[in-house]
Structures are given as C-alpha cells and as structure tokens.
Amino acid sequence: MRHYINYLLSSKLRQNRSALFCAAGILIIVLALSLAVTFPSTAMMGHGDSEYGLNGLHLRPYMMGTVGDVDHSRLDPTKYLTDVLPSTVSTLPDGRTLRTFEIYAINKEIEIAPGIFFPAWTYNGHVPGPTLRAKEGERIRVNFKNLGDRPHTMHFHGFHAAAMDGSHAHQLVPPQGTFVYEFDADPVGVHLYHCHATPLIQHLHNGLYGLWIVDPKEGRAPAKEMYMIMNGFDPNFDEENEVYAVNTVAFHYNRHPIEVKQNELVRLYLANMLEFDQINSFHIHATFFDYYPTGTQKEPRDYTDTIILGQAERGIIEVRFPEPGDYMFHAHKTEFAERGWMGLFRVMPTDEKTTVQHGHHDLVK
Ligand SMILES: [Cu+2]
User: 168 C-alpha vs ligand 1 centroid, how far in Å?
Assistant: First the structure.
C-alpha cells in the first residue's frame, strides 16, 4: 500500500496541482480503509448504512460477541432455556388427564442485542413463546386471549381436528377476542405452535411461535433438558435479518454460558423458526450428538456434530461432554454465527471416574 501511496505522491503528480488534491483525497480514503481493517471496532461502532445493521450490533474486534448486555428483567434466555408454562391439571369423566394452559398474545418491545430494541408480537410477553409440554394421550386445553392490536391465532403442529387448526380466515381471533383450542397430546415429539394470521411472514418474524412438546407415556431417560429456538430479527424492516440468535438475544449464551456437568446426558429440544433465510444449522464443537428428527423415533437418525434445518424443522439432540471446559455451539453459517447465533456450554468437572462418552456411543470400553 505504501508503494501505491508513494506513487500517487510522486514528483510527476506533484507538478499538477489538481492531481495533488486528487492524490490527497485518495490518500485519505486509503488511510481510512486501512484504519478500518486494523481497528474493526472503529468502523463497526460507527453508524454506517443502517442504524441497525452490523454497525448497530457494536461487535467486538477479534472475538465474538457484543459490548454490554440486555436487560434480563424484560427477556431472559437463560430462564427460557429450562422453563415450561405451568398448567392446571384435572381428571376427565373417562379418567384421562385434562391439562389446561393460559396463553395471551400481546405486543411488547424486546431487546434483541444490547441497545437494539424490536417491537415484537409475543405470546405471554416473551419471544419465543412459553414452552407447552404434556404427556402422550393427555387432553390439552389452551385458553387463548388476544390482547394484541390485530387478529392472531394459535396453530399447533401435531394431531387435531380441523376446527382447532387456527389457520383459516374464520379462525382468526380479533383483538380482545378469545378462543379455546382443545385436542389430544399426539404424536410424541417436539413440535411447534405459531400464529397463522396473514401475512404469515410478519406474524412469525415478529415473534409469535413457541415449542409444543409431547412426552412419551414411559418418559425419556433422565437428562438435563433445555429448549432452544433458532430465530432472527429484521429491526430495520428490509426483509433481511440483521440479528441472529438462539432464543432471541444475540450472543446471550456467550455472555452467560450454559453450565452442564462432565459426561451428563444433555437433551436439547431444538427448532428453527428463522424467517427470510432459507436454512439454519446447529453445530457443537469437540463432540458428536445423537439426533432424533421431530423427536418421534426411539433411535437416532444421525450421529454427527452438525445438522441443517429448514423453517419449522425441529428435533431432539442428545449430547455428552467428556472433558471440562467451554464448548462453542453455533450456526455453521458464519454470517449467522457472527451476528449473534453463537453460544457456549460450560462443562464443569465431576469427580466420578466415568467412561469417556460422546453422545450415547462409548468410545472407551
Ligand atoms: Cu398473528
């Protein structure tokens, strides 16, 4: 670069006054660009083309993450990770369990990265909406109230009568309206619910989605269980995501690593609800996991460290970390990872002398 600048300032050019101004202008541009390359924070922390673009994220140079933290009293991805919506339980005349949930739709401004606010439409004031969980064969009743300012619905993935689908125009629940969704918890697996009002792209991207999990009657093996929805946000409304995350807040699990114990079985209920982008992915470092698509089968389909998911694809990941330390997990799409979809598992040592295990596969016998 120096040679180029010297060339621009060569005596031949200096003879020409206008060329000198030209050279000085180019020099300033070159210096500015080299500064931007040397000190990315200088370039990224300014306001560029978009107030909410990469610049607005205040990315740190040389390490993943953002500067500062969000207000967790408004939205807490750590709490979301293990929270299930409380339900009331009663017994039906036929002896079956009736499980009742209360859900409301409400507009709420959420903080998706430090200092970046998004006018979300939410279920129960949180994005993602609360996790609904029940046992196979239970009767489910969801008392839905729309406290938002436009029609919304709840559309569940899984088995139910057409009248409970929450997808047709006549099934829209107007502001201040209510509807009772009722169906059997079936089939076993990890599913979704989301609003099905049009335009769908708007109602989904704005935050109206959550997990709906049906446990097998016999249960699953004991594990540390967590809920994760991969999502993204378009705070400048250009129909492209500027912020990516798992459970809404960019880099949250980098700032607040997820603690697990060495060798313990970790079970993730994972779904992709990313709008605008065609695919999303999930990758864990330094180990492999068992993957059960939609959680419907007893045997894993894959033993891998990376899976690809389209919108509404979901599944169960079972993983163990045999060594203590910090392990990254992130979208294996670098753009998504560097704009917030990145986190850490912090593996705490145990005293037990256990076999080194990756997933359910014993590597040392
Ligand atoms: Cu809606």
Answer: 12
Q: Please answer whether residues 249 and 75 qualify as being in contact, where contact means their C-beta atoms are separated by less than 8 angstroms.
A: yes
The angle formed by the CA atoms of residues 85, 89 and 90, to the nearest 5 degrees, is 160
Does residue 282 share a domain with residue 220?
A: yes
- What's the 147 CA to ligand 1 centre distance in angstroms? 11
Is the domain of 25 the same as that of 161?
no
Which residues, listed in sequence order, are joined to residue 215 by a DSSP beta bridge?
135
Co-location of 168 and 37 in the same domain: no
Per-residue pLDDT of the chain (365 residues; tens, 9 = 90+): 344 334 333 333 334 444 444 444 444 444 444 434 333 333 333 333 333 345 455 555 555 677 889 999 889 999 999 999 999 999 999 999 999 999 999 999 999 999 999 999 999 999 999 999 999 999 999 999 999 999 999 999 999 999 999 999 999 999 999 999 999 999 999 999 999 999 999 999 999 999 999 999 999 999 999 999 999 999 999 999 999 999 999 999 999 999 999 999 999 999 999 999 999 999 999 999 999 999 999 999 999 999 999 999 999 999 999 999 999 999 998 889 999 999 999 999 987 655 665 655 544 33
Query: Ligand 1 center to residue 86 CA distance, Å?
Result: 23
Ligand 1 mean position to 120 CA, how many Å?
11
Distance 298 CA to ligand 1 centre (A): 34
Q: Is residue 62 part of a domain?
A: no
Query: Domain range holding 9?
Result: 2-57
Q: What is the CATH number of the domain that holds 346?
A: 2.60.40.420
3-class SS of residue 34:
helix
- Tell me, what amino acid is at 116? I
The answer to whether residue 126 sits within a structural domain is yes
Q: Which residues pair with 116 in a beta bridge?
A: 113
Cα(244) to ligand 1 centroid in Å equals: 21
Distance, CA of 130 to CA of 234 (rounded, Å): 22
Asked if residue 146 lies in contact with residue 173, where contact means CB atoms within 8 angstroms, the answer is yes
Q: Are residues 126 and 248 in the same domain?
A: yes
pTM score above 0.90: no
